[in-house]
Design brief:
The protein has a single domain, classed as Roll (SH3 type barrels), CATH 2.30.30. The chain has two helices and six strands. The protein has a six-stranded antiparallel beta sheet. Strand 1 and strand 2 form a beta hairpin. The termini are far apart.
């Protein structure tokens, strides 16, 4: 069931696009931009969430409480993998724990500041 009002820090199930193959797979993602971009365009910016068993990237953030976040296994927010998705395609799973938000914010800010200096 789609969510009508996605919120910042929500963990949602979305058809996440892949860069290395022409398919989309439903997977969890973290909403990092909703509000105005959702109201004006019906889209969300999301970060990929992957299993903690996968090889880590420098900008990954471990989710401190995967159950509260609505995830079945320990997981990581992959801050370097951002996508724009149609908000109608989301299903809410949970929320990112407060303790993890500052880390995600810092990594995303660093990634964007390196692009736009």
């Amino acid at each position: 069931m789609p969510t009508s009002e996605p919120a910042l820090w929500s963990i949602v199930r979305v058809p996440f696009p892949y860069t290395d193959r022409p398919v989309r797979q439903y997977r969890p993602a973290l909403v990092v931009a909703a509000g105005d971009v959702h109201s004006a365009h019906g889209i969300l910016w999301v970060l990929m969430i992957t299993s903690a068993e996968n090889r880590g990237w420098l900008e990954d953030v471990a989710i401190s409480d995967h159950r509260r976040a609505g995830l079945p296994v320990p997981s990581l927010v992959r801050c370097a993998k951002i996508a724009t998705i149609d908000a109608k395609e989301t299903q809410r799973l949970g929320m990112l724990p407060s303790a993890d938000r500052a880390k995600v914010k810092r990594h995303v800010r660093n990634i964007f500041s390196s692009l736009f200096g």
